[in-house]
Specification:
two-stranded antiparallel sheet; 16 helices; mainly alpha; 70% helix
Length: 357
């Protein structure tokens, strides 16, 4: 009786999970052996955040085929809703693990809802128009957070866009969000281990969606919308599904990011245009639609400025050279041809055929 062979998709997915777990074990070994500086250890949680953001944006840009520049806005929604929940329930929910888990669910669901609501009007647009409108939504979300004041007392939750005094709270009430000052005192619950778990969950969701019936429908819409409509695929439904899941996963990254800081503020460098562009750079350099490539690009481009910090005069020059080289390796037809010619799979496949012959 012949053994059932593992499918190509399952093998590829297991390799992706294996790479993440192997990286985790190597890092933990380096920390245990005191081979990693405190600065590099401080970058581990942000690395996990950027990997989740890159994988989730690749779902929209690579799999759905729509250019979105508002990903940082969904991250902002997840970060502030979860941080506000954690700060408001610090006394009522004593278990830090349970509180973080509930904050994670709240951040992901709120970001997903925002993605769904924004996607309804936005996904009717295409190309540059879609990019501009998603960028505008991301900036609107950030600016709303900067003028929002939220407090809690015995009468419930109070909102204002003026100042703290306008909240009208009773003595002893707690201010949760202080406008441009953001949220202070959020419990630091994010760890590298939790970040790796969330990366694996994100990969599980995205990879299973991509290789499912819904994923094939989404990719059919990306390749030819008219042909997809002609065979009965509900274009609006699948586009909204992919966009909402992508936004929800960006919210997960926001939760991880928020619970790694003692003070959370909606600054342009955190949740603005530059952050959205940086996430898009990870996706483009790693290969549009290539989940594993976007993960590697996120790690390399995050660590590179720190690794080159000793070369103060040439750091940005080397960074730019690495960007160009990665772009050429990913997109040059000759480089793609060489990669396919000398890939391990082809070499091993040729050796197997020669043995059979």
């Amino acid at each position: 009786m012949e053994k059932k062979k593992m499918s190509k998709t399952t093998r590829s997915n297991l390799i992706t999970y294996g790479l993440v777990i192997a990286c985790y074990l190597i890092v933990q070994g380096m920390i245990a052996g005191d081979m990693m500086s405190n600065l590099m250890q401080g970058l581990l949680v942000p690395l996990c955040v950027y990997v989740i953001l890159a994988v989730s944006l690749n779902l929209t840009v690579g799999i759905l085929g729509e250019l979105s520049l508002g990903h940082a806005g969904f991250m902002c929604v997840g970060a502030f809703t979860s941080a506000a929940f954690s700060k408001a329930t610090m006394e009522s929910i004593e278990s830090a693990g349970l509180r973080f888990f509930l904050a994670l669910l709240i951040g992901a669901v709120c970001a997903g809802i925002f993605g769904f609501l924004i996607g309804i009007p936005v996904l009717r647009l295409k190309g540059d128009y879609l990019a501009i409108v998603t960028l505008a939504f991301g900036e609107i979300i950030k600016n709303i957070v900067n003028v929002l004041y939220v407090g809690v007392d015995s009468n419930g939750i109070h909102f204002s866009t003026k100042d703290m005094m306008a909240l009208g709270m009773e003595p002893g009430g707690k201010v949760i969000i202080s406008g441009a000052m953001g949220i202070t005192g959020t419990p630091k619950a994010s760890t590298f281990t939790i970040g790796i778990i969330l990366i694996l969950v994100t990969l599980f969701i995205v990879l299973n969606l991509v290789h499912s019936r819904d994923g094939r429908a989404i990719m059919a819409i990306r390749d030819n919308r008219i042909a997809a409509e002609s065979i009965g695929i509900n274009v609006t439904k699948y586009k909204l599904k992919a966009f909402a899941i992508s936004a929800g996963l960006a919210g997960v990254a926001g939760v991880l990011y928020a619970h790694n800081l003692s003070t959370l503020t909606a600054l342009p460098k955190n949740f603005g245009y530059n952050m959205s562009i940086m996430i898009l750079v990870f996706v483009v350099l790693g290969g549009i639609g290539n989940i594993r490539g976007s993960m590697i690009a996120a790690v390399v481009l995050t660590l590179l400025p720190e690794l080159l910090r000793g070369l103060n005069d040439y750091r940005m020059l080397l960074y730019a050279i690495v960007l160009i080289v990665m772009m050429l390796l990913n997109w040059s037809p000759k480089a793609i041809e060489l990669r396919e010619r000398y890939s391990l799979k082809r070499i091993f496949g040729r050796g197997k055929k020669e043995k059979e012959a």
